[in-house]
Amino acid sequence: MIRRLALLLYSLSFINAQISLPTFQAVHKPHSSCSSTSTLEVRVATGNDDAEEAQGGSMYRNSSDLELVYDTYNNQNSQEVGMRFLNITIAKGTEIKNAYIRFTADETSSSSVTVTIHGEDIDDAAQFGSNSNNISSRTKTSASVDWTPDSWSSTGATHDSPDLTTITQEIINRSSWSSGNDMVFIVTGTGTGKRTAESYNGSSSKAPLLHIEYCTP
Ligand SMILES: [Ca+2]
Ligand SMILES: [Ca+2]
Ligand SMILES: [Ca+2]
User: 11 C-alpha to center of ligand 2: Å?
Assistant: First the structure.
């Protein structure tokens, strides 16, 4: 009886090994398509490529800074902030390895704040217009990333968003995405905290910078 049980267990473990081997290989598929990575960095390049939309919907495209996201100025209050990056020369479906937006502090702030970053779910994002709700009316990606920034304690210091790979990948994977299209990211939030970043209008050389690392075939 014991011998039969041992045999049974032995055959079960053999079958198990036969079954589990291909599964193991499928899970640990080597990334042979990604022999090296390339980096693309694109900074906001015109005044209307970064913008704030007031809680009431009015557009403010030439502000010298981008409050992420609460701004008492002119009752902007809980803003939606948009940034558009031109000429993203990455082919459709390319595997994204890392992505973030680098902000430069225009003012210091340590208030408690959490913001949410989405992309615009579109093939080729348009420049921000002056019509009401020009940012909030855009379709956002399913992917989003929450960000609770550390204190910004000196002006001119740079601060990177968390990894935005999921958002970037969703846009790059769109069926009609093509290399050279333009990409928009949108920052929203709740509460009355903020971090104040440079805009293009405040300092063109310190405007938000999109950094993407992607697989080179
Ligand atoms: Ca602007
Ligand atoms: Ca300012
Ligand atoms: Ca502003």
Answer: 72
In a domain, 166, yes or no: yes
How far away, in angstroms, is 66 Cα from ligand 3 center?
4
Assigned domain for 184 exists? yes
CA of 59 relative to ligand 3 center, distance in Å: 11
Give the pLDDT confidence of 106-115 residue by residue, as tens digits. Answer: 999 999 999 9
CATH number for 61 = 2.60.120
pLDDT in tens, 144-157: 999 999 999 999 99
Q: Where in the sequence is the domain holding 108, given as residue range(s)?
A: 35-216
Q: How many domains would you assign to the chain?
A: 1
Report the phi/psi class of residue 11: left, alpha or beta, with left for phi > 0 and alpha for psi in -120 to 50: alpha
> In 3D, which of 127, 135, 129 has the Cα closest to residue 53?
135
Could you tell me the distance, in angstroms and rounded to a whole number, from the CA of residue 175 to the centre of ligand 1? 30
Task: Report how far residue 59's alpha carbon sits from residue 55's, in angstroms, rounded to the nearest whole number.
Answer: 10
Residues 6 or more apart whose Cβ sits within 8 Å of residue 38: 213, 214, 216
Kindly report the pTM of this predicted structure: 0.85
